[in-house]
Design brief:
Blueprint lengths: L1 H27 L22
Length: 50
């Protein structure tokens, strides 16, 4: 029973840590410069190996 309780506490701690890390990543994410357009492709150099 003690091992199960310790495992539950560890899982809960990891869940809280992952939630905090997700919030921090969303806050630090740079804002997009403008709206996305699906009608215009970005300038990507051609792959000569293709």
């Amino acid at each position: 029973m003690g091992i199960l309780k310790a495992f539950f506490k560890l899982a809960l701690l990891l869940l809280v840590g992952a939630a905090i890390a997700g919030v921090v990543m969303m806050v630090k994410r740079p804002k997009s410069q403008g709206p996305l357009s699906f009608e215009q492709w970005p300038d990507v150099p051609e792959n000569p190996a293709a």
